[in-house]
Design a protein that fits this description.
Blueprint: E1 5-14, E2 21-31, E3 36-40, H1 47-54, E4 62-67, E5 70-71, H2 77-87, E6 88-92, H3 103-113, H4 118-131, H5 147-159, E7 165-169, H6 177-192, E8 196-201, H7 204-207, E9 212-217, E10 220-226
Parallel strand pairs: 3-8, 3-9, 6-7, 7-8
Antiparallel strand pairs: 1-2, 1-4, 4-5, 9-10
Helix pairs in contact: 3-4, 3-5, 4-5, 5-6
The chain binds adenosine-5'-triphosphate and magnesium ion (MG).
Amino acid sequence: MSALVEVKDICKIYNPGENEVRALDHVSLSIETGEFVAIIGQSGSGKSTLMNMLGCLDTPTSGTYFLNGQDVSTLTDDEQSDIRNKEIGFIFQGFNLISNLTARENVELPLIYRGVPKKERERLSEESLKIVGLAHRMDHKPNEMSGGQQQRVAIARAIAAKPPVILADEPTGNLDSGSSKEILQILKELYKGGRTVILITHDNGIAAQAKRVIRIMDGHIVEDYINEDVVF
Ligand SMILES: Nc1ncnc2c1ncn2[C@@H]1O[C@H](COP(=O)(O)OP(=O)(O)OP(=O)(O)O)[C@@H](O)[C@H]1O
Ligand SMILES: [Mg+2]
């Protein structure tokens, strides 16, 4: 059995030449189905660059990436967006909701792109909004909700199509500590329910709550360990 995520010797070099930036410098890692991994590092260490690779949002300068056994570098742009839609649910620091759509409509949007029929879309979107505790806010627009609630809508949107991998880049970066706790609790529940959760953060306190921690510094992986004392 191959790993769900298998990165082999990836480099990402911006501006090759004299002023080049090695955002990722020979990174290898593998993540199995059902893991809860925090990728931690300081600002500029390469976290978002790595997330973009893992999420098939960008291609590496060199190295290979297998997602669910498929060599992503051999796929066309269309095939990459297909695999992205099918395998990955994204959560971003800035929520990225559409302001003139309700919570329900925001969650349904990616399901429309996937060609899910209307009735099924409604069912999936209600189901995932309930999971994140927003049954009572389904018809509210983003500006009628708190930051924490907006991020919960974004999580509902990420999980609605039941992708195996949840990829979150600083999901609590814009939230107060109470809302951050709620969001982390939801991610833990998703992990307990069998999803693979990859959480990108610069916060040691958040990373300490994940089962496995991968630390990145200057584009290198410098630590990769299991948090033995974390309990769910
Ligand atoms: N498009 C780009 N062109 C040139 N350099 C870039 C580009 N994107 C990122 N970089 C550089 O690559 C390095 C890694 O950036 P990245 O965004 O991955 O860091 P990060 O760990 O996500 O930081 P933060 O915590 O601030 O979000 C940085 O030195 C950054 O300046
Ligand atoms: Mg970043």
